[in-house]
# Entry
Amino acid sequence: MSIKLYYFIFILCISLAHTSYANVIYVGKGQRITTIKKALSVSYAGDTIIVKKGLYKEGNIIIDKAVCLLGEDRPVLDGELKYEVLSVKSDHVTISGFFIQNSGRGAMDDTGGIKVYDSRNVTIAGNELLNNYFGIYMQYTTHCIVKNNIIKASQKEENQSGNGIHCWKSDSLQIIGNKIEGHRDGIYFEFVTASVIWRNVAKYNLRYGLHFMFSHSNAYITNYFKSNGAGVAVMFTKKVVMMNNTFEENWGDAAYGVLFKELSDCYLSGNRFIRNTTGVFFDGSNRIIAERNLFQANGWGMRMQANCMDNTIRNNNFMGNTFDVATNGTLTLNHFSENFWDKYEGYDLNKDKIGDVPYHPLSLYAVIVEKNPPAMLLYRSFMIGLLDKSEKILPSLTPENFVDNKPRMGPYSL
Amino acid sequence: MTRILKYVAIDILKNKVVIAYAVMLALFSWSAFSLEDNAAKGVLTVLNIILLTVPLMSVLFATIYVYNSNEFIELLVSHPVKRSKIWKALFTGLALSMVAAYIVGAGIPLLIFADWDVALIMIAAGSLLSVIFVAVAFLSSIITRDKAKGIGISIMLWLYFALLFDGLVLFIFFQFSDYPVEKLVVMLSALSPVDLCRILILLRLDVSAMMGYTGAVFKNFFGTNTGLVLSFSLLLLWVLVPFYVSMRKFKKKDL
Amino acid sequence: MIEVKNISKRFGKLKALDHLDLQLQKGECIALIGPNGCGKTTLIKCILGMVLPDEGEIIFDGKNIRNDDGYRRHIGYMPQIGRYPENMTIGHVLDMIKGIRNDSSLLDEDLYHRFEIAGMLDKRMRTLSGGTTQKVSAILAFLFSPKVLILDEPTAGLDPVAAEILKEKIISAKNEGRLILITSHLLSELEDIVSQVIFMQEGKLILHKDVTELKFVTGQNSIARSIIHLLKSES
# Structure
């Protein structure tokens, strides 16, 4: 062995020792360091900064080292409605246990409670964010985790409020178990790919519970969206998987359980659409498979515009909807099969649990209301019942190929 | 008056037609709720009963009863009692009996099977419709002395309110589909008690659909507390106006 | 007691009463007779306030009856055909009418006992024969000892025994000084009851005379014959 090699090993050891024996820095009243900024300035990558209970008004705190920033007993970081509270500009940062409030309201630079810039492997977990403009803002990030945060705002106007979790041009994110209320959009994605959104709750947001565009190959699993101003709207995206989500009580003319606009190659399964004005609205969407979903007590269970093609709707339960499906055209290039329709009145002689006569889920009245919305007022009048019945017997106005040839006799247990 | 009312009510409640009516309502409602696996469909069956059967039975039975009571009314008039009291007692007796038959027949299953708010609004609507169509019957039976004509008028009125009116509104929708006719239609619907009741129930039953844009117009009108009070006062007007017109006529009628 | 002053009533084209004037005194038992459609029933109904005359007025005990219903407490009325609500019992009807009258004075239950109604109180009106229904009507007419009795074909449908009881009752009422107005087609029935005769035709009063005077003038010994004689002599 040469001397050079010894030197190399020696230096390696020193540097390893340095990382593996990282410092813990305490911040708080009565501590040697009383401000987070000071702690950050004296820390090295790999250090842990533990912030004690207290109110910290330090303006904009920039984290540009790979540190772990932990709050003990929920220290409060206040942006005084002027500053972005935490700006993360380094990889491998962890932020946890803080109460972050009152970020600035800059519409120009999209101020956030926590904003992550161009970083990888950042974890933001277990924080509470109150009355920030944007809650958690991720831009150009990869492999980041946003987990178990509670994000609330109480603005009344959409334009005074940012989004709860806002992600832009990111990849491989994990958004897990967050609760978002009162923001403009609960979760907002634009150009975000290969990410998973799991077990989040978004309710009472001013606009959308979930809103994404150009965000391909993401999975949305077991999320809960309730009573958001306009429900959930997702657009211009491919290869989305949505499973076991619940979309509930999104009421209003432009509110949807989910609005799919220009989506393709998506898979929906096990979702529950309950008491929405419209459960699912498909607009220009192709090759979507929707199976084993529940559509219950919606005004319109599913609206499928005539510009949709090759979608497969199978093995779903349609129960107690005012209208199960509606469409705006006469051409139907979609495939309905083996759904349970509670309005189905056919019979099953061979006892294979599949009705022997096909079911036309599109009622004449749904067609009339589509063209002439005020006619809704006449719904459930005897006249309309008569019209619907005669249409069922002799279809003339409803598209003939809008049909489920294998309607289920009983509901699936979903 | 209470004495007349009491015995008139007893007389009507013992009437076979009224008993059959209550039994029929009960039969339909119970079977609707127990045969269908979900209560919502049962509610729809009862809704159809409310909108068609209840008005028809009320108007027909009351008309026939008033004509059949002609001699009895004469006898009462020969006694020192105001005509208005006789008319009111007769009306109250009939209205109460029809409401009782409805509540016993359809109200009980509704309370058992349907959601409370839906059940209550349906019971209220059905009861009001019973009373309204008894009032309509009083009007049509005072218009003409001829029993057959009177019954004919009653059936025509029922036909108009239960069926034709909707067709008329639908026609207006299509004719004026290019114009914003929602407000007009809301006003129009006030002209038919059956439609008013249907919309009130619709706002409970199809709340999700009614939250859509056009639905919201109705919801904002009928669904608010003021709207509810307004609609019920309108329905009340539907009781009072026909009845008072008939009473004015009855006071001057030659028996 | 009752003054009918110049009353007229039209039903469409038909003149039911044509400027009719009448004076009815108490203590009289008056037979109101005339062919079908002569206006008898309309006259009775006018007096009872069921029909409102087009012109003229009716004075009862010195008071105009228009817009007043209190005077009817002094009238007992027995309709030609009593039809009662089917499912009311006799007891209900009696109780209801008592309730309307709300009279504290002693009730005249003479007919009630003599017709032996007490045992039938629970019977429904629908199940009663025409005769029994008439009995109920008669009881109601006499129940409150009214000053005026208006009886429309009172004995029609009654069995002979009941008819006899009713006649006796009418006579005793006359003797008590009440005014009794009877319409009937069977003049022989009225022979020994009535003290005056009113004959009407086409809404007009043809004659109003004491029975004795009538018989004397025509020289006949029964009312029926006197009337026929009179009509013949006129034509």
The longest helix of chain A spans residues 3-20. Residues 235-362+399-414 of chain A form one domain.
